[in-house]
Structures are given as structure tokens and as C-alpha cells.
Design a protein that fits this description.
Layout: H1 7-20, H2 28-58
Helix pairs in contact: 1-2
């Protein structure tokens, strides 16, 4: 899996790690790599979850076909309902 880590976010996180460590000199690479690692781990952990979310919102379960659209009695697909066109803001 090829994940792009946003440089600006890594920079901000590395700075946070540096401050949390008491601002030590000469540890910039260590904090940078730690920040990158955190982003990569979060991305890797989120990837399988995103597939589940996509399936949930599409209404499909793995291995099942999508539901068919409703048809009218004569076999034609039903048109979407029309609205009055007026907004309901007060």
C-alpha cells in the first residue's frame, strides 16, 4: 500500500513531539520519523475501516447484489418525487 503522508501535518506533529520531550537538541530526525510512523499507522488502520464504511453507506453487504430500483405497475421506473420548490426557512 502506497500512502502519502502530508508533510505539513508531519511537521506539526514532529514539533509537538519535540515540545513534549522537553525541546531536546539533536532529536529532530527522531521526532520526524515518529510523526511519520503515527500517520502511517493511522492510515493503515483506517483503510480496512473505510471499506466497511463505503459498503455500509452504499447499502451493499459483501457478496450481495445491490437492491433493484422500484418499478411502477407497467414496468417503468418511478420518477423521483417533486417538491413544491419553496424553502421551509423561517
Amino acid at each position: 500500500m502506497n500512502v502519502q503522508v502530508p508533510k505539513e501535518k508531519v511537521q506539526v506533529r514532529a514539533h509537538q513531539l519535540w515540545e513534549e520531550a522537553g525541546r531536546p537538541a539533536g532529536c529532530d530526525l527522531e521526532h520526524w520519523l515518529q510523526a511519520e510512523k503515527e500517520f502511517l499507522l493511522n492510515s493503515a488502520a483506517a483503510a480496512p475501516l473505510m471499506e466497511d464504511v463505503k459498503q455500509e453507506f452504499s447499502g451493499n453487504e459483501p457478496g450481495k447484489k445491490p437492491a433493484k430500483k422500484a418499478k411502477s405497475e407497467n414496468g417503468a421506473q418511478k420518477a423521483p418525487r417533486k417538491t413544491s420548490g419553496r424553502s421551509k426557512t423561517k
